[in-house]
DNA sequence: GCGGAAGTTTGAGAACTGTCAAACTTTGAA
DNA sequence: TTCAAAGTTTGACAGTTCTCAAACTTCCGC
């Protein structure tokens, strides 16, 4: 496990990449669960119906697109929604997605 | 050519389908060109780099998702952005996409 | 009517991506 | 030090979809 996973800066965000990230139902569900919660969530604590390794893949896609920030606490990896950064880069996008 | 192509009602719009429609760069470009223009646009008049038959496919995806409305004028098919309907179903979504 | 213009349909190929299984790494606790 | 927990990595497979080519349909103008 990389100690410090790569996270893009806000200036590096790309709409195409963000759209490709949230178009997947599993990933969009992850984003919505983070948005609905008032705390960061461990990878293993999400309500998703895919295998562990598949989840890892989805988290990576979300992280590289700039949607989430990941950090370790012990053996667990916590996930945080980068709401402020996203609102800066694409105002209104996250809110528009919360609907569905 | 079907005289009257199928268009979904606003109540039938589905976010997942809309996202799948706009995630494709060619289709998103079509939507943006319609949004930027103050008039409807013929299929053949879009600035896209794909074959005619591929374009037909993209227009169909956009139409079935509810993003555009199509109607014939002679041998030409005109395309209109369903902005009002989309704003009703997914407020803020179209505006958020106009950025990129 | 005939030919051209504008799209559509169908078929097929290439590329991408979501998924799981199995093996591996790292960390915390007993 | 040993073991279990939590994720990651790699490999492979299946399904989807973007794309083009070729043949076809419809409509307009000559």
UniProtKB/TrEMBL annotation, chains A, B:
UniProt feature coiled coil, ranges: none
Positions of the HTH arsR-type domain: 17-95
Identification of the protein by name: Helix-turn-helix domain-containing protein
Domain of life: Bacteria
Transmembrane stretches, start-end: none
Organism field: Kribbella koreensis
High-level lineage: Bacteria, Bacillati, Actinomycetota, Actinomycetes, Propionibacteriales
């Amino acid at each position: 496990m990389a100690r410090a996973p790569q996270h893009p800066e806000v200036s590096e965000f790309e709409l195409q990449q963000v759209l490709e990230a949230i178009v997947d139902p599993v990933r969009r569900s992850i984003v919505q669960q983070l948005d609905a919660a008032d705390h960061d969530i461990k990878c293993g604590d999400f309500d998703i119906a895919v295998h562990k390794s598949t989840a890892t893949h989805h988290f990576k896609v979300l992280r590289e697109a700039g949607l989430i920030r990941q950090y370790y606490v012990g053996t667990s990896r916590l996930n945080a929604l980068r709401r402020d950064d996203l609102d800066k880069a694409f105002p209104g996008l996250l809110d528009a997605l919360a609907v569905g």
